[in-house]
Amino acid sequence: MYRGHTVGVIVPAYNEESHIGEVLATIPSFVDRIYAVDDQSTDDTWSVIQEYTTASERVTNDEASNVEAGSPPEAPPSIADGGQIGDTEIVPIRHEENQGAGGALRTGYVRGREDGMDIVVTIDADGQMDPEQLPSLLDPIVEDVADYTKGNRLADPKSRREMPPFRLFGNWLLTQLTKIASGYWTLQDPQNGYTAISQEALAAVDVESLPDDHEYPNDLLVRLNIAGMRIADVSMPAVYDDEESTIEYERFVPITSVTLLQGFLRRMYSQLSNDYRDPVAIGYATGTASFVGAVAVAIDTGSTSLEGDGSSSGLLRATIAFVASGILFLSAMGIDAVKNAENGVYR
């Protein structure tokens, strides 16, 4: 227990036999429950989890059955007995089929919610996250400053310098797109997997509907904003070792782009449903209409110019429409940032 709050930690793992044992061993003793979720690894990750659990000081029987692929049950069970070190209970869970990074988190979130954990934390099994930083994520929630906290590697100059240029640019670009989609304009490093969520926030979002793959953080941020939850970015360094990323960029980029667009549209629809005069949604809608109109006029002007019948009036109309769309988009973004200013904080 941490400052009067029960804490559950999800450790999702896929082919992390070299790191998961150390990660489990270094999780702070104030954590009440660890959900070690093996997403049908093809290496010895599950064996390491079992060995670690068996080596615990006291073994407790945990109901055993399999977690089927797809949406998890109300209380996702494990297929091994649980173990306990001191006051920390270890709950090993193994998927029958690989469900992706989001699927593993989804299983842990549902289990933590059903177990009544006050705060549920996510720590990746690749050893990139320092467990000693955990209080920094918990404090804003305990102090009722935020409902959801996440690590931010971009706030640390050393971490930025150590990050490969391509990865840094990709992170920056994804940050900007996620800001627009989610409405959390102060956030950075949206794909950071070191997070904590309050019981109230977990109950307010439909975690069973989280995407299966690495786009789940972006989708979750949109859901949190729609639910009116506060988030906090917590500056912390990254730990880079010999781990290999499981992200397949040829799939990640298009899928995440679609997820962000769907999330943005869902958020705009929610805002219009609450207030049909919402200036943010109206600004984005009219800006889009103006942009589409500008493109149509530009295409028409270009085609008539090729036929020798073009005039400067068409080009002028297209230019005006482009400028108007830019002004409308920027205005909508500015209003959105002001409206959501209190929902995003730095630590």
Describe the protein in words.
Residues 57-84 are annotated as: Disordered. InterPro entries: Glyco_trans_2-like (IPR001173), Glycosyltransferase_2 (IPR050256), Nucleotide-diphossugar_trans (IPR029044). The chain crosses the membrane at residues 281-299, 319-338. With 347 residues, the chain is an alpha/beta fold. The protein folds into 2 domains: 7-252, Spore Coat Polysaccharide Biosynthesis Protein SpsA, Chain A, CATH 3.90.550.10; 275-346. Helices cover 47% and strands 14% of the residues. The protein has helices at residues 20-26, 45-54, 100-114, 134-142, 157-162, 165-182, 199-204, 216-226, 249-274, 279-306, 312-339; strands at residues 7-13, 33-38, 58-60, 82-85, 88-94, 119-122, 148-152, 195-198, 231-235, 344-346. Strand 1 (7-13), helix 1 and strand 2 (33-38) form a beta-alpha-beta unit. The protein is elongated and about 80 Å long.
In short:
This protein has 347 residues and is an alpha/beta fold.
Q: Report the β-strand fraction as a percent range.
A: 5-15%
In CATH, the topology of the largest domain is named Spore Coat Polysaccharide Biosynthesis Protein SpsA, Chain A
Q: What topology, given as strand order, has the largest sheet? A: 3-4-5-2-1-6-8-7-9-10
Question: Runs with pLDDT <50, length 5+?
Answer: 57-80
Q: Give the overall shape, derived from the CA principal axes.
A: elongated
Any idea what the CATH superfamily of the largest domain is called? Answer: Spore Coat Polysaccharide Biosynthesis Protein SpsA, Chain A
| Helix/strand order | EHEHEEEHEHEHHEHHEHHHE
The number of domains is 2
Average pLDDT over all residues: 84
Region (Disordered): 57-84
Transmembrane segments: 281-299, 319-338
Domain Glycosyltransferase 2-like: 9-202
Keywords: Membrane, Transferase, Transmembrane, Transmembrane helix
